Amino acid sequence: MLEIQQELSETGSFQGIAQCWRCTEATSYEDCATHGKIETCAEDAECYIEARIRSASVRRFTTGCKLANACNDLKNQNFRGPKVWNQCKPENHQEESDVFGESVCRQCFRPCVQEKDASRCFQTTGENLGIPNWDDFGTTWDVFGNTTRWFWTSNLPKRQSEK
């Protein structure tokens, strides 16, 4: 908070401050809200989410700051090589889960400044839960509902900056 107050007094804006909601191994949005907190990111960081999926359902997830290059490197691990070797298998069925185990999917998204506009931060409470779409309607990408290949391959930071 002191950094934010200092940034405001020196520049009159929130430029240069990037924040992400941080929670580890959350099993629900409520769990993430209860055990998570906002964290200030390093320069050139994005927010990330890593979801553990089994039987086409998110079982637990981790969110927080990650350097942009590291986040994209992890995201690029989602779909590499033949489908059976993909780490991210969002559409897998029960029988595939039993054979291939847990699916691990990662995504990057834009950081926010909670004190400036909390609606642009990862949402753990309220009607619209998940990663903010950054539109005028307050819509989000619901991590528990968006378990499609499209979601896990999209360039969300770019989509958010176009809004």
What does this structure look like?
- By secondary structure, the chain is α+β, with helices and mostly antiparallel strands.
- The chain has one domain.
- Helix content is 29%, strand content 27%.
- The chain contains 7 helices and 7 strands, in the order αβαβββααβαββαα.
- The chain has helices at 2-11, 29-35, 68-75, 94-100, 114-117, 149-153, 156-161; strands spanning 19-26, 37-40, 45-54, 57-67, 103-109, 131-132, 140-141.
- Strands 2-1-4-3-5 form a 5-stranded antiparallel sheet. Strands 6-7 form a two-stranded antiparallel sheet.
- Strand 6 and strand 7 form a beta hairpin.
- It is globular, with a radius of gyration of 16 Å.
- Mean pLDDT is 80; it is low at 1-14.
- This is Oidioi.mRNA.OKI2018_I69.chr1.g239.t1.cds.
- It comes from Oikopleura dioica.
Strand order of the largest sheet: 2-1-4-3-5
Determine the mean pLDDT. Answer: 80
Shape, per Cα inertia axes: globular
Rg (C-alpha, Å):
16 Å
Helical percent range? 25-40%
Distance between the termini: 27 Å
pLDDT < 50 runs, ≥5 residues: 1-14
User: How many structural domains?
Assistant: 1
Count of individual helical segments: 7
SS elements, strand count: 7
> What is the H/E string?
HEHEEEHHEHEEHH
Protein name: Oidioi.mRNA.OKI2018_I69.chr1.g239.t1.cds
